[in-house]
Amino acid sequence: MAPLYLRLLHQALATELMVLLPVIGIILAMGFVIGYLQAATQLEDATLSLMPKLLAMIGLSLTGAFGILPLLERFATSWIAHAPQLVRLSWG
User: Which pLDDT value is given to residue 28?
Assistant: First the structure.
């Protein structure tokens, strides 16, 4: 069995990945759609590329937080519960 600090590090990286994947996926998808539309219409306006991404991120932060908050709550609870064991752990 792996040491406690390695299990907590693994949990931290997995949680980070689960939190960031929807954000990266939405930005990537919006970039492809906007790039396609700009190429098809030959428009090179900076507002056309910024506003849909900004609106998508606002929408994700308003609706996606309902799925992310319980995940972060479990993560924080686990780290707080293991804090006394980490303090007593021999790091040598």
Answer: 92
